[in-house]
Amino acid sequence: MQKFLIVGGNRLKGTIRASGSKNAALPVLAACILNASKNTIHEVPRLKDVAVMKDVLTYLGAKVVCEGSTFIVDSSNIQSVEISEDLMRRMRASNLVLGSMLGRFGRVKISYPGGCQIGSRPMNLHFKGMQAMGAVIKEKYGYISAQAEKLTGADIHLDLPSVGATENLMMAAVLACGITTIRNAAKEPEMVDLQNFLNKMGARVKGAGTDTIKIEGVRRSDLKPAVHTIIPDRIEAGTHLVAAAITGGEVTVTNVIPEHMEPLLAKMREAGIRILAGDDFVRVQGSDRIRAVDIKTMPYPGFPTDMQPQMMALLSLAEGTSIITETVFENRFKHVGELRRMGADIKVEGQSAIVKGVKKLSGAYLEATDLRAGAALVLASLAAENGTILEDVAHIDRGYERLETKYNALGARIVRVHD
Ligand code: UD1
């Protein structure tokens, strides 16, 4: 196990570049299966989750060559339609190959990705949509198999705008016969990125970014190789902005699309943080006073659940009481106990955390229970008095590329220690 030793107290200052989006790269890499061609994807972040997706594609028979942040994925030789349990367990998002495999081969078998730290995360909406398109889904002994002689376009209404279900169904529909309409679709910027990539390979998808996405099925022979650049990571960029704010620093984050970050920026402004947004950068100009604000996580364009733990760290030092309500995942307050160890005054009541701002946090012996909770604890530690030992930082590596190196370049003091 690896841990971080963090000495807090320094204001972060300087410029930091956000990488390509993890949550856009994962479905785009999975979509490479569809066209049985050589695709070139730029700005792929070199993260643990991306490495797992690369292993999944390689396991299936694709050839993946990585040159820095450019991935060349040749899916012409995929033979297998089954993914090992070991790979599925390494990352939940491996389930994103379900739609593209079903679309291209008419069958796929994966082991159930199971629950995770932040909630049970069922796949019923993915299955219902695929069944509406004519697939037969069987769940047995922890395995899911999906099979379809022929996928047919369907009118699908999602009970809730699931990101993964929307992506899987978009991919499954590319080679289906006829038109698929996904209603109450997720509207995250990552949907638009996936649509753009699919269209570059010859698919006919429109409406991504709104709640209705229409996919007109095409023939295999219509699909061709594609070149694509992944959009910037709005969650990584947001984490850096909060790191600047919590340390009272001045940080410019480059390679961002400020519009994608508006739900976060609006709340940060409301909290009294000075923000300057340009065309492709956002700058936080430190503020010594942070005001309490209420936050409710919602699907995009609501406040992102993936920024909730980091904002809780920040608001634990605000003037006044903030109420943070988590509506997307049922178990996403694991960081509360850890923040309390640092002296934060937080009480959980059902879906809400009541955060009474304190004057200071103090370093402690902590555990990163999941990716964003881990990031939140790094931020809290940067602002704390005394040192922190943060265990199990492998979770943080799933979504941030050498976070300690990036923050040390801005003046932080973080050392990675291997057991
Ligand atoms: C994606 C993101 C994750 C983010 C989340 C919500 C990736 C790789 N991950 O996860 O970082 O936190 O969106 O923005 O992009 N649900 C069902 N049935 C389903 C599917 C989902 O009930 O079939 C529920 C989930 O349990 C959860 C909610 O819907 O409560 C949202 O989940 P979903 O949008 O599917 O998240 P993911 O795609 O797993």
Structure write-up:
This protein is 31% helix and 25% strand. The chain has two domains: 205 residues, UDP-n-acetylglucosamine1-carboxyvinyl-transferase, Chain (Alpha-beta prism), CATH 3.65.10.10; 208 residues, Alpha-beta prism (UDP-n-acetylglucosamine1-carboxyvinyl-transferase, Chain). With 419 residues, the chain is an alpha+beta fold. A hairpin with a 3-residue loop joins strand 15 and strand 16. The protein contains 14 helices and 23 strands. The strands form six sheets. Strands 21-22-1-23 form a four-stranded mixed sheet. Strands 2-14-16-15 form a four-stranded mixed sheet, covered by helices on one side. It has a four-stranded mixed sheet with strand order 4-5-3-13, covered by helices on one side. The structure holds uridine-diphosphate-N-acetylglucosamine (UD1).
Please give the count of helices.
14
Shape verdict: elongated
| Structural class based on helices, strands and sheet pairing | alpha+beta
Bound molecules: uridine-diphosphate-N-acetylglucosamine
Q: Strand percentage, roughly?
A: 25-35%
* CATH overall fold name of the largest domain: UDP-n-acetylglucosamine1-carboxyvinyl-transferase, Chain
Share of helix, binned: 25-40%
Oligomer category:
single chain
Task: Strand order, main sheet: write it out.
Answer: 21-22-1-23
The level-1 CATH class of the largest domain: Alpha Beta
What is the radius of gyration computed over CA atoms, rounded to a whole number of angstroms?
A: 21 Å
